[in-house]
Specification:
heterodimer, A: mainly beta, six-stranded mixed sheet, 12 strands, 51% strand, globular, B: mainly beta, seven-stranded mixed sheet, four-stranded antiparallel sheet
Chain lengths: 114, 118
């Protein structure tokens, strides 16, 4: 079965500093990995995805994620954090044989302080 | 496009009452999903439809939950009777595969309905 784990409930970073939100995955084949962001009282918004190809994936709002097969990780990164990046971030993995089933991590709350 | 629309945004009801949550997917999207989000269990897929037909309802917790999609622009999730443990945020999402099956993986989420059952 596919699953993802987000080991940190919360990440605190100062504005202008780089940020990393961690995600590790467990799949029985090639992983299809995603990051979503949830702002207060809003639905989840797609940020980026890894399907195949380059291990560094670029997404919306200046975010990027690095796929590391040997460490089974897919960490979300941004070189310079903004206060407006403060939100809840979810890592997700898609089921191998079902394009419609996603398994989401527990979420990581990112706090960016001015 | 206005995005996925859900109503109501907040619902407070008493145990035993029937609750109906509504969703309007993005026009042209052929998949619709219902999720539930709780602190304890995170985000769970309840059911999804393809072209208005329920495909997988294995996530529906029990018979008290039912979902319908009478047409391409409307879906409901009904809980009858409701219980306090059903309190959660319920999200609807839609997806477009018209560009080729599997090419478009992103799901577009609505703002959610926060349900409180007292």
């Amino acid at each position: 079965a596919q699953s993802v784990a987000q080991p940190e409930d919360q990440v605190n970073v100062a504005e202008g500093n780089p940020l990393t939100v961690k995600c590790t995955y467990s799949v029985s084949g090639n992983p299809y990995l995603f990051w979503y962001v949830q702002y207060p009282n809003r639905g989840l918004q797609f940020l980026l995805k890894y399907i195949t190809g380059d291990n560094l994936v670029k997404g919306s709002y200046g975010f990027e994620a690095e796929f590391n097969k040997s460490q089974t990780s897919f960490h979300l990164k941004k070189p310079s954090a903004l206060v407006s990046d403060s939100a809840l971030y979810f890592c997700a993995v898609r089921e191998i044989y079902n394009f419609n089933k996603f398994y989401f991590g527990s979420g990581t709350k990112l706090n960016v302080k001015p | 496009d206005a995005g996925v629309i859900q109503s109501p945004r907040h619902e407070v009801t008493e145990m035993g009452q029937e609750v109906t949550l509504r969703c309007k997917p993005i026009s042209g999207h052929d998949y619709l999903f219902w999720y539930r989000q709780t602190m304890m269990r995170g985000l769970e897929l309840l059911i999804y439809f393809n072209n208005n037909v329920p495909i997988d309802d294995s996530g529906m917790p029990e018979d008290r939950f039912s979902a319908k999609m009478p047409n391409a622009s409307f879906s409901t999730l009904k809980i009858q009777p409701s219980e306090p443990r059903d309190s959660a945020v319920y999200f609807c999402a839609s997806r477009d595969t018209s560009g080729g099956y599997g090419l478009h993986y992103e799901q577009y989420f609505g703002p959610g309905t926060r349900l409180t059952v007292t």
